[in-house]
Amino acid sequence: MSASTTHQRLRHALEDVDFPAEKDRLVDQALENDADAQTVRALRAIPPVEYRSLSEVLSSVSLDDEKDVVPPGQQAQARRTHTKPGLAESAKNQSPINPIVEELGTNRGS
After folding, report:
1. Which backbone phi and psi does 22 adopt, to 5 degrees?
2. 59 — alpha (psi -120 to 50), left (phi > 0) or beta?
3. Residue 67: per-residue pLDDT
């Protein structure tokens, strides 16, 4: 079972954090705020980098209620954070295009 938490529990656990913050600081603050074990485990599972905002943390943590609780403005912010380094946002979920079809168009029955 993967470590996950809810948006509300994560927000409560990190309410006093000054960003940017390292992963270890996030875990320490969650422990100081008496966060539940699942939230602490979820924070320990994120990559060890410096996070610039709560939105970056939200995009890295596995959330149980991601679609239901995250406000639309924060969903947009989380989508702007790349989850696949080295790829442009427009190239993330596109199927490959055959170069011949791209150049000449589809076969017209000839």
Report:
1. -80, 160
2. alpha
3. 47
Pairing of strands 50-51, 21-22: antiparallel
Which is nearest to 5 in space by CA: 96, 33, 104?
33
Rounded CA separation 16/20 (Å):
12
Q: What is the pLDDT of residue 60?
A: 86
Preceding amide of 85 cis, omega within 30: no
- CB–CB of 23/51 below 8 Å? yes
Q: Is 35 helix (H, G, I), strand (E, B) or coil?
A: coil
pLDDT of 106? 67
Residue 54 sits at φ, ψ, to 5 deg, of -65, -30
CB atoms within 10 A of CB 62: 14
Give the global pTM.
0.57
Whose tokens are 């596995």? That residue is: 62
The residues of the chain scoring below 70 in pLDDT are 1-2, 65-98, 101-102, 105-110
Q: Shortest CA distance to 9 belongs to which of 50, 49, 48, 54?
A: 54
